[in-house]
């Protein structure tokens, strides 16, 4: 792995503004082009913020940088910084580092996504602010100590404003490039009004999507695959439990749609 340490010198009173700028522009620009944020820290005096980014190798970093510099979101970020003033951060610097060994177990990020239909058979899709070249099913990362079922309810609610009823798991997908394992659920609309999530989704809606026109909406192959597998699913068995002592929280058997 190849790491880049980016350090920003800021005015303490502008920390909140800089954090919002980072999460709205700097973070999604990098992540959408393949980088992974290892962590982000601020000093006790709140005058310096450090972000540690991970890439597969230097060639990967250079490709991300080329993609980043030509992205529309970067142009938006530059305009936003101009409006906020150049002292949003006083200066920045970066250093490149290679690991000296492996000291932690391999880490895989678990995420969830949902194929949600309404009474008319339409499918819920979102357009993310940091991935606005395509529509996709709503979803996101599972939080610490959160079940995958709780996570899919939360993510759909946050990104679209609605409540759902989960029917089951239709597929599991592993992105070995970014070490993400995605669990896809099929679900039904229950209640709520559609509402984009500020800073995350710029458009949400139900669409007449099927195998014949999925490419008109979803432009990325791996997102298409998840939707196509969920159209006529065989639900996979899954269980959620605790140990020490063992407690079964949820169990769903394998079943077919009727």
UniProtKB/TrEMBL annotation:
PROSITE patterns assigned: NUDIX (PS51462), NUDIX_BOX (PS00893)
Listed CDD domains: NUDIX_Hydrolase
Domain of life: Bacteria
Sorted UniProt keywords: Hydrolase
SUPFAM superfamilies linked: Dimeric alpha+beta barrel (SSF54909), Nudix (SSF55811)
Cofactor or coenzyme needed: Mg(2+)
Nudix hydrolase domain residues: 105-229
Similarity comment: Belongs to the Nudix hydrolase family.
Protein's recorded name: NUDIX domain-containing protein
Organism the protein comes from: Exiguobacterium mexicanum
